[in-house]
Specification:
By secondary structure, the protein is mostly helical. The protein contains seven helices and four strands, in the order αβαβααβααβα. The radius of gyration is 20 Å and the shape is elongated.
């Protein structure tokens, strides 16, 4: 379907999965859509992930409601494509601001702000944060992070955006503050 795979971990009969590595991958490389078991779903919740989850492994729900599951044959492939498409729509819904969130954001200023200079390490930090996001939400994440970092610098009277300001913007967005 053309979407990049952020990470994968095999299940092997007779050996235990490296759950610490799975948890670390979910935290450091957030997926857009996650295929897995209840374990991966718990790790996503612990990390605050907003990725769509598609049950694809045990332990998990025993009952599946479609004849195409597990993903076998034409029916299974059709079901899988539908689930991924639904997950992409859910991802878009999560990145679009809700009316209540738009009301919390400060009004657009009537006066133009002068462009703020960015330190090279601040640009690199912003690029690294954006590159770690799922491909579908990168533009939105970049705008929210950039706006939050510049707003923070302006409010505190700084003449340029430094790497510490980018980290503060990232932390504020993770806590759910409006960007």
């Amino acid at each position: 379907m053309g979407l990049p795979c952020a990470f994968s971990f095999p299940r092997r009969a007779g050996s235990k999965s490296d759950n610490a590595a799975v948890r670390q991958a979910i935290e450091t490389t957030p997926p857009l859509v996650m295929f897995g078991s209840v374990n991966e779903r718990m790790y996503m919740a612990e990390a605050g992930s907003r990725a769509a989850f598609i049950p694809a492994s045990f332990p998990g729900a025993i009952i599946r409601r479609h004849t195409g599951t597990p993903f076998m044959g034409y029916s299974g492939a059709t079901w899988l494509v539908q689930e991924v498409c639904n997950a992409l729509f859910d991802a878009l819904f999560h990145i679009l601001p809700l009316a209540g969130q738009m009301d919390r954001v400060a009004a657009t200023p009537a006066r133009r702000h002068a462009e703020l200079a960015w330190d090279e390490d601040a640009k690199a930090a912003l690029d690294a944060l954006v590159d770690a996001q799922p491909v579908l939400v990168r533009i939105s994440a970049a705008k929210r992070l950039r706006d939050a970092a510049e707003r923070g610098a302006r409010v505190t009277g700084e003449d340029r955006v430094r790497v510490a300001r980018v980290e503060l913007a990232r932390a504020a967005l993770l806590e759910g503050q409006a960007a």
